[in-house]
Amino acid sequence: MSQNQASGAKANEYGRECGAKIAAALGATKKRAGSNECILNGETIWIKCANPKTNKVGVYSHVFDRIAAVLGAFKTDDGQYNVFRLSTEQFLKNMVERDYERGKMGQVTRSVFERDGLKVGALKLD
Fold first, then answer.
1. Residues of the chain below pLDDT 70
2. Is the pTM of the predicted complex or chain greater than 0.85?
3. Cα within 13 Å of Cα(66), Cβ side
C-alpha cells in the first residue's frame, strides 16, 4: 500500500517516537533531536522501526557514509520488538534502491534482517 501525505507523516512520527524508545531501551545516545541516528557501543547506528504488517525499512543513501550499522526494530503481533543489526555493508548488499523527492533510499526486507542480522534483543516498550 502506498502512502499519501497524511499516512507518511503518521509513519514518520511513529518511526521517530519508536526509535527514541528503542534507543533508550538499548542505552544508545541520540546524536541530535529529530533523528534516529545514535551512538551504541561506540558506533554510529541508524534505528528503523516497523509495525507487524510492514515488510521493509528504508534508509536514505546520504547517511551510509557516516553510520556503521542499521538496527531494524520489527514489532510482532504481541507488541514485542525484535531488534536486529545489519552492518552498513550488509544493508547495501541487500537493498533495493528507490528514488524519492528527498533522494535515493535503500530498502531492506524484514526477512533479510532476520536471516542475516545479529539479534540485538527482544524489547517490550511502554
1. 1-2
2. yes
3. 11
- 88 SS3 class: helix
Residue given cell 514489532 in the structure block: 75
Domain span at residue 18 reads: 5-124
Q: Phi and psi at residue 98, in whole multiples of 5°? A: -125, 150
Q: 84-107: per-residue pLDDT in tens? A: 999 999 999 999 988 877 788 999
Query: CA separation (Å) from 97 to 39, 87, 100?
Result: 25, 17, 10
CATH number of the domain enclosing 11 = 3.40.210.10
Calpha distance 38→2 (Å, rounded): 28
Domain count, the chain: 1
- Using a pLDDT cut of 70, give the percent of the chain over it: 98
CA–CA dist 101, 32 (Å, integer): 23
The H or E element containing residue 26 is helix 5-26
